[in-house]
Structures
1.
Amino acid sequence: MPNTMVQLLDSKLTIWFQYEKMARKHITNVKRNKANGSGSGTRPTLFRHLVDSDLPASEMHDDRLCQEAQSILGAGSFPTGAALTFISYQLIANERIRSTLKKELGSVMAEYPKKIPSWSQLEQLPYLCGVIKEGLR
C-alpha cells in the first residue's frame, strides 16, 4: 500500500514516514562520503555506525539500514515522549507534586537562565529523580 494511502488511513503514521525519509537521506549521504573517501566528519553518528557495521554485504542495502535506523531512533524517541507526556500531565493535574517539585528546584534554578544547573546538581534532587523514575515506570 502506498505511503500516502497509509497516511490518509492513519495520520499518526506520518512521523514514521518522516523518520524513514530522514534516515534514508543520512544513510545515502554517509554511503556517498564513504565511497568518495571524503569521510563524513569526526563526530560519530548512528548512520555512520550502521554503514560501517559488520553486517554482511548482502544486508547493507538502504532499505535494511533505514529500517535499523528507524528502529533505533523509534526505540529512543517514542518511549521518551510518552514518559514526558505522562510527567507533564501529572505536574499539571496534581498541585502537590507540582509545588513540591517547584520548591525542590528553587535552589538550583535560582539564577536560571543566567546560570544553567549541571546534570550533577539535578541528579542530587531526590524528588526530581523520583518524578522522572515514576514517569519512566
2.
Amino acid sequence: MSTTTICVAGITGKLGSMIAQNILLHPSTQVRGYRRDKSKIPESVRSNPRLSIVEGDSGDVEAARSAVRGCSAVVCCYLAPNDVMISGQKVLIDACVAENVPRYIASDYTLDYSRIQPTDIPAKEPMFRVREYLEGKPVKGVHVYNGAFVETWLAYLGVWQPKEYKLRFWGTGDEKWEMSTYNSTARYVAEVALDESATGTLKFCGDVLSVKDIGLLFQKQYGKTPELESKGTLEELRAKCDEARKGDPLSFQKNMYLFYTYYVESGKTYMGDDLDNSRYPSVKPETVADYLAMVDVR
C-alpha cells in the first residue's frame, strides 16, 4: 500500500498539531511538519514514528522546499502578523511549484470573506492576497471556511463573561453565528488534505446559533440562565469600527474583534446552506451543545 505524505506548516500551533494528529489516524499516511522550533511540537504528535520535522522559518526558501518535497499536499496553519502571513505563504507556494506539489491548503479557516473587501476586516487581507497569488499557478489552491471557532467566540470576542455569568453582545441577540470547534475543523481539514480531488473553496459548519440560542444551551447544560446584555446596535458597532480605523495601530489591533462581529452579524460573511459537510460523512461535526458538555466554561 502506498504512503501519502502531507506537509503541515505551522505544526506547533493548536490547529496545526490537531490537523497533524487527525492525518496520522489514517494508517497509510505520514506527516512532515515544518516549523522554526521542533521542541514546541506537542509530545502527543512528536512521538509518532510517522512524523518527521523540517526546521526553518517562514522566509527560508531552501528549508521550505525540503519540507514540501514529495508531498501530496501542503497544509498551512500559520498565525502571524499580516506581512508574515503573506510573505511566508508565498514562500510555501513557490516551494510547491518548484517541487511539483499538486495542492496547497491556505491558512484561512475562517468566515466566508468572499463578499467583503480586503480592508473590511484587516486581519483577513492576507487571505485575499494569498488567493490572488495562487491564481494561475500549477499548484491548486484550497480554501477552507468554517465560520467562527466556538472557543474564539466565547473568549476572544468577549461574549462570555464567566465571572458575571453573562453573555454580552452587539445587536438584538437574534443575529446568527456560524460556528465550528477546533476539533471538527481539524478533522475536516485532515480529510481535505487526503482527498486528492478537493480543490477550490470548501465550507464546513458545526452549528448556526444566536446569542439567545446559546443562552438557552447554558441553562440546559449548567442549570442556570446567563444574563444577556446588549452593548449597542449594529449601527453603533459600525461606528466603533470606523473609530478604531482612525486610532493608533495598537488600539486598532486590540479592537479587531469589533470588525469580526460587525461583518458576521450584519450577514456579510455567512456561508449559508451550501456546505460541504456531507462530502466527508465520517466526520460528525461538534455543535455548541457538544462543546459545552465537554468543556465547563463557567
3.
Amino acid sequence: MCEGEYESLKEIYQVSPDLVPKPFAWGRYREPQPEIYFLLAEFRDVGDQSEGRVLKPCLVHGDCWDGNTAMDIRTGEAFVFDVCSFYGHNEYDTGNWRAPRHRLSNKAYIRNYKKAFPVSEPGIPILSHG
C-alpha cells in the first residue's frame, strides 16, 4: 500500500507539484517482525480545520456497495465481502451510496446504517455532504 501511495504521489507531483506533498521515499523497517512500512513525504501545515470537532476513527469496509454485499440464503443475514478495510471516518462507506444506480442509496439502508453509526458532528445528514 505504501508503494502504491508513493508512486501515485510521485506521478501527480511531476505534473502538478502544488497539488500534493512532495514524496521522498517509502520502504520497510529493518526489523523482521512486525512487518511495518513507512511513507516519507513533505510536511504541509494545514492548521486546525476541525472547528473543535473530534473524529474517532472506526474500521470501515473501504469499498461498500451493492456488488460487495449479499444475503446468506440459509440464514437470511446480510454480509459483506471484497473488503479493503482501514480506519477512517464512520461515514466513508456511504460515499458510494450516493449514485442512484446502487440499491444502497435506498433510504432504508441509510436509516439502518444511522442506527448502527450515528451521524457525526456537525450533524449534517448522510448523503447531503457536498
